[in-house]
Specification:
Number of strands: 10
Distance between the termini: 24 Å
Largest sheet: 6 strands, antiparallel
Number of helices: 6
Helix content: 25-40%
Oligomer: single chain
CATH class of the largest domain: Alpha Beta
Number of domains: 2
Order of helices and strands: HHEEEHEEEHEHHEEE
CATH topology of the largest domain: D-amino Acid Aminotransferase, Chain A, domain 1
Length: 222
């Protein structure tokens, strides 16, 4: 893993501030699935090769953390609408990269997996209710990183949301796979060491039998 992490660092456009595309490449090194996508620079123009519809368009900048509020995300693009919407978002953010991804379909609640750094205790991994209501629900559980898969299962069981894993209203969410993902994120924090200040996967959703990270943010120590 050290060699792959080193290569990831070498390929960063901004070695102090990874953008969403870079952050997704990082978690993917730890077998965490992300949507198929590509980062297009302003000079690249329109290119959807290798990506299937429907599409998501996002402004892709480490300095724009609240993309939705700034109208930097366009969902539900089909082959007829995507080029016009690409031009619109490019006009709105003329000097920024644009991330084009396949839009994942999913059922069930959104989750968040995160890493925070305590000055005394070091990194801790968190799982909880995710999406836009994360701060409202405040349904979270923590362990020091790294943590085992069994510890991650205990974290999930501590959530108020945990009954959704017991075939709640026909939902078939895979708790084992989510626990593996939590553990992998905790090892990512361990491997990055003091360099990592914060990591957020929000949301992570269950799609086609796998947990997939729809948005990822990585913050390094300044």
């Amino acid at each position: 893993m050290e060699k792959r992490l080193k290569l990831w660092f070498e390929n960063l456009e901004d070695k102090e501030h990874p953008d969403e595309f870079d952050a997704k490449q990082l978690v993917n090194l730890y077998s965490i699935k992300v949507p198929c996508g590509k980062r297009l620079k302003p000079e690249d123009g329109f290119d959807l090769s290798g990506i299937d519809p429907p599409y998501v368009l996002k402004v892709c900048s480490s300095h724009i953390l609240h993309k939705t509020e700034l109208q930097g995300v366009v969902l539900n693009n089909d082959n007829e609408s995507v080029q016009d919407n690409f031009a619109m978002i490019q006009k709105r953010f003329p000097n920024e990269n644009i991330l084009v991804e396949n839009q994942s379909s999913y059922m069930g609640p959104e989750f968040i997996i995160g890493i925070i750094k305590d000055p005394a205790l070091g990194h801790a991994v968190m799982v909880g209710a995710g999406g836009v209501l994360t701060e409202l629900y405040k349904d979270t559980s923590f362990r020091l990183a790294p943590c085992s898969v069994n510890e991650a299962k205990d974290m999930i069981d501590e959530l108020v949301l945990s009954p959704v894993f017991e075939n709640f209203r026909g939902l078939t969410l895979d708790k084992e796979k989510l626990a593996i993902t939590i553990s992998q994120v905790s090892w990512l924090a361990h491997d990055l060491g003091d360099k990592l200040s914060q990591l957020d996967i929000n949301p992570i959703v269950f799609s086609d039998g796998e947990w997939i990270a729809l948005d990822v943010k990585v913050v390094f120590e300044s």
